[in-house]
Fold each of these.
Amino acid sequence: MSDKVLMKGNEAIAEAAIKAGCKCFFGYPITPQNEIPEYMAKRMPKVGGVFLQAESEVAAINMVYGAAGAGARVMTSSSSPGISLKQEGISYIAGADLPCVIVNMVRGGPGLGGIQAAQSDYFQAVKGGGHGDYRLVVLAPSSVQEAVDLVQEAFDIADIYRMPVMILGDGMIGQMMEPVEFKAGQRRQIPEKNWATTGTGGKRKKNVINSLYIEPDVLEKLVFDRYEKYKKIEETEAKYEMVNCEDADIILVAYGTTARIAKTAMKAIREQGYKVGLIRPVTLWPFPSEAFKTAAKTAKAFLTVEMSTGQMVEDVKLSVNGEKPVYFFGRTGGVVPTPAEIIERIKNISGGER
Amino acid sequence: MQKVFQKPKSMSDVELHYCPGCTHGIVHRLVAEVIDELNIEDKTIGVAPVGCAVFAYNYFECDMQEAAHGRAPAVATGIKRVNPENIVFTYQGDGDLASIGTAETVHAAARGENITVIFINNAIYGMTGGQMAPTSLLGQVTTTSPYGRNPEIQGHPIRVSEMLSTLDGAAYISRVSVDTVKNINNAKKAIKKAFETQIQGKGFSLVEVLSTCPTNWGMSPIEALEWLRQNMIPQYPLGVFKDKE
């Protein structure tokens, strides 16, 4: 028998982080992610960890920088407007090659936007929301259980590659309750943090955490070296789910909450005889391009569904590379697409052909 | 041959990039001497700012982190909370600490964050070429207050030490100057006291050091020291503003 507990997405993510060895959490209140800092405030003191409510998202991410530089597993969470504020710090963390985990429970935007679920921060997360040439590994859970599993994965990837990793959820993933199991899964080999600023102890040369390089040649080499690392991540870390794609004429593409709705639509319309499949990217960066190259050989068209005006669809188009038409359907501002709307679009695209 | 004068162990051999007559070098040395005397160099982590002292991570011979502009107290908070046994200090200028980093400074002090802040107040942005700082004096001509700082347009200079001393979390707040040998000796005592405050776990400590910027003030080093005495000290009186027992 498995030990399943019923938990809210935000709380499950917080608990998963603690189980993954997160020692420090720096947060700031913003809806719809407040249960993460609240859970951390309760639990961290009991497990010998640090919870601190910072004076701003800007301060929180810089506390993350300091703590990551000191060698701790550290996490922060926020939602869209707060993540915008963190971008400066995220760029510095990437530039200083520091590992950390950032959770974004996306809400509608731009500006103050709304507080309901959205996916309109895709570009910001995947294309580099801060300044400079850098990437985040971006993980997009579509259930509370997957969120829990990906938190462990996020900390490991961050440590292995010395880079920030983002969990890109949405208000729905954060707020909904589902049964979860905290599996003591296989841990990956984590390299020693001999670069951390913990004091020399009189035993080694000083360590410096820094992203400033005045000489263009030196900076260019560092950025290119980092891109070699990114290339390796693209080759080895891409994750996705493919359902019913073998015989599919139309393949739905969706991540996170939207993927669940797309799956419901796919099941319903298959019963009507339409051959529809689904590709669900789990890593948004690296984007699982391979899945699309394979699927483009047999599918007639792709339909990307997002809670945005169309952001991931650009990566889908790049991956399909003109082989087949790529359509888009999106709701935004906190409006969640329905299976019926998706079914209607599929029928429009197929022209009623099954 | 007997050595009668040497650089502190906690300063590296890297040549300082500061302008002639700038007092950053003096303050670096005082901090390094204090670290040596307290024998804490192997457990000290410094946080460098953005501004003239941006390369401080090259000059101090201890673990260092380079922070974004104004964020040093937040970065120091992260370091200290992970390893409370470390001694953590920031080294920041007036633009960094009193303008863009005001929130981080005030809240680190309010939390009683057990870190030490060395605050260089030279009433100007040095690195970027002499723009108005939050601490620029009324009437002071800078590249962004070319007609002199006018309180009706640019507001008033901020007295950081007085402001922070009102916070319960602040344990030791002192303003010193490095314009004379006597004042340099006092400055060193204050810096030592600030580090001792942290070692004793009393909370937030800050030493504001009145400094010169001959290059951007458009003065010779000697004129700059005189200008500091005539103009800065009256606006920013020296003394201890907080000393929690």
Amino acid sequence: MELNNVKLVPDVGKDKLVDLYKQMWTIRFFEEKVDEFFAKGEIHGTTHLCVGQEASASGACAVIQEQDKITSTHRGHGHCIAKGADVNKMMAELFGRTTGYCKGKGGSMHIADVEKGNLGANGIVGGGIPLAVGSALTAHMKKQDYVTMCFFGDGASNEGSFHEALNLASIWNLPIVFICENNQYGMSGPVKDMVNVKDISERAQSYGFPGVKVDGNDIVEMMNTTHEAVENARSGNGPTLIEAKTYRWKGHSKSDAKKYRTREEEKEWKDKDPIKRFAGVLIEAGIFTEEESKSLRSEAKQAVEDSVDFAKEGPMPAHEDLLNDVYA
Amino acid sequence: MREITYSEAVREAMEQEMRKNDDVFILGEDIGVYGGAFGVTRGMIEEFGPERVRNTPISESGISGAAVGSALTGMRPIVELQFSDFITIAMDQMVNQAAKMRYMYGGKATVPMVLRTPSGSGTGAAAQHSQSLEAWVAHVPGLKVVQPSTAYDAKGLLKAAMDDDNPVVFYEHKVLYKTKSDVPEDQYSIPLGEADIKREGTDVTIVATAVMVHRALEAAEELEKEGISVEVVDPRTIVPLDEETIVQSVSKTGRVVVVHEAVKRGGVGGEIASMIAESDAFDYLDAPIQRLGALPVPVPYNPDLEKASVPQVPDIVQSVKKTLNKA
Amino acid sequence: MAKEVFMPKLSSTMEVGTLLQWLKEEGDPVEIGEPLFEIMTDKINIEVESYEEGVFLKKYYQVDDEIPVNAVIGYVGEENEEVPNEPPELADEEEPSEAGESAKEDEQPAAEQPVESATDKVRATPAARRVAWENNIELSSVSGSGPKSRVHEQDVIKAIDTNRATPLAEKIAADKGVDLSQIQGSGARGKVEKADVTGYAAAQTEPREEPERVKLKGLRKAVADKMLESTQSIPHVTLTSEIDMSQVIDVRKSLLPVIEKQTGYRLSYTEIIIKATAHVLGNHPKVNASLVGDEIVMNKDVNIGLAVAVENGLIVPSVPNADKKGLAELTEASKTLGLKARDGKLSPDEMSGSTFSISNLGMYAVDGFTPIINPPETAILGVGRIVEKPVIVDGSVEVRPMMVLSLSFDHRAIDGAPAAAFLTELKDRLENPYGLLV
């Protein structure tokens, strides 16, 4: 399929593109809604929002199948939705209800849907990378046909677990795709101060497999690159490290004054809004009209509104259940 | 029944399970043709091949994390850490990932893995290769912690650990690897959370773990000559802890010495002592609870100092007598 | 400086002395030569006099304590002078030259004393505390064998044993090798005295045959439970009265052949007493009552329960409506019930429903006794034997057949006066049985 003179390599079909567009709005509205409820004090704890990064989550997950697995990060709501999670159960989890993905015991940083192949968000920076390697090891040992897609951020690429895991994946030639979402800041630390290579993707060279960088705000490019990496992994050609350059619009977490960056920089990135770019591409390619795009947007918004109702109706966990599930 | 060593018992438990269950595999540093730092996996790669006896780079964080991930997705891995001191490097994966995953995910995940690792002093390996850090992991809900003291216990407990759907930290003791006991050839399982009374007695209870079980038994022999009857209870698993057996024994004897090799400060002995003090055994205590553990010092290299830093038989004898006002 | 009062060595063999009594209290002025306390040695009892003058400052021991020779047992000195709270330990005999130094060391624990006394706590193990509590022993009275006098379980057990016996009894027990804990004391609060020990020791030397043991079960157990329940829950009062049975004997003599012919059963005194009792009960409904829960139930029927001894127990079948039956009918009823009872053929109906019971032991050499009420009934009549006695009748001594009746009643339901009125009327009825015909 050609989109604006760019060939879309994976054979996803027109309907899937429409769904992806709606999914990106769902992610954005979900994050905005969560932000709103945190501000109101109706959701407690902390949360890390991925507004502005929708293309990397949706684009990467668009090219994998239900049996494929992902590991996610503390900024994981987008990955969850992209891997097919039910926003109702996600919102219920944030409201701490038993109807949430983790029965109200995990919260924002620990949403997982193991059955759907989402091995979980992770509160430890870099903590999920060795887990993804383990998941890929299972596929390899059991000769199962799934690929593990491992999301992490630029900050995690400085953790020892990142380097150990990449090395293991390489020596064992595992079916895994590492996706580094470089959103330019590890909390307040600018990536240019914390990493002394031009691109994090270069780090793959140390471990003997390909590293590629991609415009993480361009979902088409994201899909093409990830597709190739996934196909390589699936056909036994080992891992790839993809660095998706993107930007988080909001602060690190709920209480971030963003003193470490300028409003001008933020505006520059907001102009590269991945959803608007995708809308433009799809309208121009005649996939849908502007009118249709607007109604998809409002459908997404409505789904998120409904998820709040669902969440609030869910029962609070009972104290009797406090000690359940510590051990199997 | 035939006698085999502790180290052979551990190997046999793994081999028998691996023959039965393809999901079980072992990964660790130098566990291939080298046979592991202490020779426990010797011969295994020849039988099971390099896929299932997976020789890894020196990456404790990576391999423990890979074990957690593979357990989460359907395998039943055994990680061998060369020295339990290295759990410091694997700690995030064990404590923040393995231990918590099931709870964090609302019960929708299981992490059936065993992390086997030799602990303890007595080999002259000094400060970074001689520690007993079991209290660290015992503190973390979600982990189980096993400390076998005999070859028989090692085989049965390892079988139970491999069958368990939770992450289990399995402490082997370096100086016990060569000790022998009667071990059945067939597979058998010793439930986690069942203490073993290694010697019955009436005057004083010693609760001892790992190598200290043997020192306690030696002390009991000596004390018997003086007419003091000592009961030696080996909890065998620290988590879950068989509180009932300990409480019953202490209620019977009214006196207790808790002894482990780990540093006394913050050690598991404090937990056991407190548990006793909180239990029904309190009203039967006829002397203050005694705790013995290593001195608060890194394990020294010099063999004499090394010995002096951890409890020895005369220390246990002395401590028992103290509870009887005879010291 | 306060002077020590110590346990004197009064003979070459004396190692300990037992404190029999203090003759001075703390704070009393003391003169030289005044008796301070009395002790018992292995040979004698003796009053010990003070070697010092001043104020008696401190006593460390209590009566019956065994105190080693030379142990400091108190202090005499100037008023308000400070002395240790605990007796100083005995100086080691082998190092007399260092006595001064060790005394110095002793001051260190003494310095800690005020803290301990401030809380007034006894150092004791949990086990010692439990045993002390179970045996109602004051821990402060127990001397501890542990470090810093910590009291252990064995110390308390020893204290229980030693507190149980007088020093003399203890000494005799020790001499005779008798275990004091086996002896029931006859003194105050069960204290074992000399006679208890000698008696026990003598008994021990008699040849003994092992007793046969029978398990409490079946009817025996039922009777046991019922008796215990009755005596534990019912405040019993027993009244007795002596009855002149002359006329009852006449009545029996004349009616016996008639009733025997009619029923085949021989009329006994029991039936006549039932008849009289049932009749009188009609006039005293309170005595024919039952106490059920918090209600007194005044029964309209008069059903007389008869205590019948059977093998291994006692059962109480009931003669219903005894007040409405003639002597022939009563004779037949009571005889058949008795037979059935012994054969174990009573129906449950026949064993229940009595409103008042009679227990007759007149066939034995029993004059009177205190019967136990058969709940929920509120009274029971005990019948003794008829025995000829000299009785004053109209100013002259006559021999009359006399019988004692014992009425036990439940004082919760009945007071003394109405019970006495009932017994008085019953006596009158039995002494004038023809009144029953009126």
